[in-house]
Design goal:
alpha+beta; 240 residues
């Protein structure tokens, strides 16, 4: 008698997640295609510490085989560490370059590119429906930061209105305005998080939470706009 197959056995298995090394290889391939300088920087990051370890081993080991090996191993480990750091930074830059200029690109930085000390949403607080220029808001040790996505002329009215709302309910909290867009003096998308981290501290951690909760009363304004694009799911194009 044929054995019946249960429905559980016939259900398709979920796709297996790629391993860590495969993920790193995919990130490397995406970065290499989008950034011509990534590979030379990574090779320098790897080879310079290895070379320094070999030189130190020859000069300082004084014939001690164990010391010779340790210097070389330390150089190799340091080289691998620096290579991974360079890969991470170049990959982030390459990924953000693929979505720069798209509506919701700043939301990607708000979602995954900020330190934990920042409280921000990937959804804008104000949107201009015709041009899709948008204003994002973040709260951190530097106070309130308004990030304008789009041209300065397109976002000026939105910035003024949002600044007026914030200063009305939080008159003693500094408000900083940053622009990400096509203007020559605008901040490149991949430098936005580092620029925000350079803002001088003005409030403490407890005040950051209180300010963020107070701003929740303003709600999310404007028209719907796509959530922040995940830059690491964007397929990199070939460099021009």
């Amino acid at each position: 008698m044929a054995r019946r197959t249960s429905p559980e056995n016939t259900s398709p298995k979920p796709p297996k997640e790629p391993g860590r090394f495969k993920q790193m290889w995919q990130v490397f391939q995406m970065t290499r295609r989008a950034d011509n300088r990534a590979l030379p920087y990574m090779l320098l990051a790897l080879l310079l510490p290895v070379l320094a370890g070999v030189v130190a081993a020859l000069l300082l080991s004084d014939g001690n085989v164990l010391a010779l090996i340790l210097y070389i191993v330390v150089g190799v480990m340091l080289g691998i560490l620096l290579l991974l750091i360079v890969l991470g930074r170049r990959a982030e830059r390459a990924a953000y370059s693929q979505i720069a200029g798209q509506p919701g690109a700043v939301g990607a930085v708000m979602k995954s590119g900020l330190r934990r000390s920042w409280r921000a949403s990937e959804m804008p607080v104000a949107v201009q429906g015709r041009t899709q220029a948008a204003i994002y808001r973040a709260v951190g040790r530097g106070g309130v930061v308004l990030i304008a996505e789009g041209g300065a002329a397109q976002t000026k009215r939105l910035v003024d209105e949002e600044r007026r709302k914030v200063t009305r309910i939080l008159p003693n909290v500094p408000v900083t305005v940053l622009h990400v867009g096509p203007d020559p003096d605008a901040i490149p998308l991949h430098k936005l998080s580092s620029r925000m981290n350079k803002i001088k501290s003005a409030i403490n951690r407890n005040e950051v939470l209180a300010v963020s909760n107070r701003l929740q009363s303003l709600g999310q304004g404007g028209l719907p706009i796509p959530k922040g694009v995940d830059p690491f799911k964007v397929r990199a194009g070939r460099p021009r």
